[in-house]
Each structure stands twice: as structure tokens, then as C-alpha cells.
């Protein structure tokens, strides 16, 4: 049995380098991390630390310069673009700050869109449970423009879990929401982990949002500099502040 079979996602010696104005810029510098099934991880760090690049490469949205990305027992580098697209559609859920809903579709049509695209037959019992959990039953016939920001984000979460993906990647999912609505959305993500065994990896700049996670990873200069079991809002804020005050030194 593989020693990694309890991991929904893992990255090994992950490096991503870009060319900007003729200069090489390293966004990730040999990152190693694993994300266990049924857990909620927050990824944090200063602007330019590499947190969004880590999410995008781990989710198969961007190809790393070197290193390996695994979703379960599948290494992404071995996949053609067609197979990678299918894997993202079938095994990965995405929740973004901008919601990314289709304005011409109803709430229900947005939620089942990944299923339609994959040709899968919807599990009506599961979809009913997802809709109940996100509290959108009375809104299924509405279009996104008729919903509040919080309701639109709930649609995005429902769409992400409809396929029962291996992992849901969230990029600042509460960045466009007010404090109360953000708390409701984060509680919903937390419940998906606790009640349905979902795996969530969330990039956020907000210590309060990160406090909903089981674990907090902090990046600086493309490297993991902190990897903490839930430390609480105060310690998360303290750790982030310390990065702004002092240079980061990472062994190795």
C-alpha cells in the first residue's frame, strides 16, 4: 500500500519560474507539501510569496517548471492537456473570489454544469443534499444577477462539490464578501470537510478566515516557512506580522 494513499494532493520539490522583463523570477522554490483527505488547509503569506502559484500548480491550472504534483495516485506531468482538462473537471473543484458563474444559467444549471460537461448522470439525492446544505433551495430558478454576493459564492461552492471531487481549491473565496457573509461561507466549507469528508485547500490573506482551517501553511519567497496545526487568529496574525518585520531564512 502506498504511504501516500491518505493524501488527496501532494507536491514534491515544486518549482515555478517566470520570465519578467528578461529576468527570471522564482515564484516557488522547491516546495514539498501534502494535503490529507478530509482536511481543511489555509495557505497564507505576503503578496508575492507564491501562495497563488502553489494553488494554481497544485490544481493543474499551471504547469510547474520542475517537481511533481499528484492528485491522489495521478501525477499531473504525465497527462496530456486533454487528460489534464478531464482530471480538473472530474476530480477537482474550484471556488474563486470572483464566483465565475454563468450569468445566462440558473442556479441549478450552474451547479450541475460540471456534470453536464463530463457527461455524467446527476445523482439527484446528492444534489438535493448539496442544495440543502448551501441553503439555496428557493433560489434554484434564479440567475446569478438576482443573488447577493454570498449567495453567488454558495452556488460556486455547490458547483465545486457536485462532482464529489478529490479536492476543492479556493482562491480568496471570501475576499469580495462582507464579514458576516464571509463567516457563513467559511462555516459552509468547514461543514463540507467535517460532514462529507471533503478536502479543502484555501489561499487567504485573512487570519480570521484561516482560523476555520485545521492547518495553516505560510509561504515567503516561494518557500514554506511555517506549517502549523490550527494556531488561532492571534498567532496567525503574529506569524504574518513577523514576516513583514524580519527577513525570512529557510534551511536548505
N-C termini distance = 30 Å
What is the fourth-level CATH superfamily? Answer: P-loop containing nucleotide triphosphate hydrolases
Q: Structural class of the helix and strand makeup?
A: alpha/beta
The 3D shape can be described as globular
Order of helices and strands: EEEHEEHEHHHEHEHEEH
Question: Can you lay out the helices and strands and say which pair or pack?
Answer:
Elements: E1 7-20, E2 23-36, E3 40-44, H1 51-58, E4 66-71, E5 74-75, H2 81-91, E6 92-96, H3 107-118, H4 124-134, H5 149-162, E7 167-171, H6 179-196, E8 200-203, H7 207-210, E9 215-220, E10 223-229, H8 233-245
Parallel strand pairs: 3-8, 3-9, 6-7, 7-8
Antiparallel strand pairs: 1-2, 1-4, 4-5, 9-10
Structure description:
With 252 residues, the protein is of the alpha/beta class. It has a single domain (7-245), classed as Rossmann fold (3-Layer(aba) Sandwich). 36% of the residues lie in helices and 27% in strands. It has eight helices and ten strands. Strands 6-7-8-3-9-10 form a six-stranded mixed beta sheet, with helices on both faces. Strands 2-1-4-5 form a four-stranded antiparallel beta sheet. It is globular. The model is unreliable at 248-252 (pLDDT under 50).
Keywords:
252 residues, Rossmann fold, 6-stranded mixed β-sheet, 36% helix
Could you give a short description of this structure?
This protein has 252 residues and is α/β, with parallel strands linked by helices.
Amino acid at each position: 500500500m502506498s504511504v501516500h494513499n491518505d493524501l488527496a494532493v501532494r507536491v514534491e520539490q515544486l518549482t515555478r519560474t517566470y520570465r519578467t522583463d528578461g529576468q527570471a523570477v522564482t515564484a516557488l522554490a522547491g516546495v514539498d507539501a501534502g494535503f490529507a483527505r478530509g482536511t481543511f488547509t489555509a495557505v497564507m503569506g505576503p503578496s508575492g510569496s507564491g501562495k497563488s502559484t502553489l494553488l494554481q500548480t497544485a490544481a493543474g491550472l499551471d504547469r510547474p517548471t520542475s517537481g511533481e504534483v499528484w492528485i491522489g495516485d495521478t501525477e499531473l506531468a504525465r497527462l496530456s492537456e486533454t487528460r489534464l482538462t478531464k482530471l480538473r473537471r472530474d476530480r477537482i473543484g474550484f471556488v474563486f473570489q470572483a464566483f465565475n458563474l454563468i450569468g445566462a444559467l440558473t442556479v441549478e444549471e450552474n451547479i450541475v454544469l460540471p456534470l453536464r460537461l463530463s457527461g455524467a448522470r446527476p445523482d439527484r439525492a446528492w444534489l438535493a443534499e448539496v442544495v440543502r446544505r448551501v441553503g439555496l433551495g428557493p433560489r434554484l430558478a434564479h440567475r446569478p444577477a438576482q443573488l447577493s454576493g454570498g449567495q453567488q459564492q454558495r452556488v460556486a461552492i455547490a458547483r465545486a462539490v457536485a462532482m464529489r471531487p478529490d479536492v476543492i481549491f479556493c482562491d480568496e473565496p471570501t475576499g469580495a464578501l462582507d464579514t458576516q457573509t464571509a463567516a457563513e461561507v467559511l462555516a459552509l466549507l468547514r461543514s463540507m470537510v467535517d460532514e462529507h469528508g471533503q478536502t479543502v485547500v484555501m489561499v487567504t490573506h485573512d487570519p480570521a478566515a484561516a482560523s476555520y482551517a485545521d492547518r495553516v501553511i505560510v509561504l515567503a519567497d516561494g518557500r514554506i516557512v511555517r506549517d502549523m496545526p490550527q494556531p488561532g487568529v492571534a498567532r496567525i496574525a503574529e506569524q504574518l506580522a513577523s514576516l513583514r518585520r524580519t527577513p525570512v531564512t529557510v534551511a536548505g
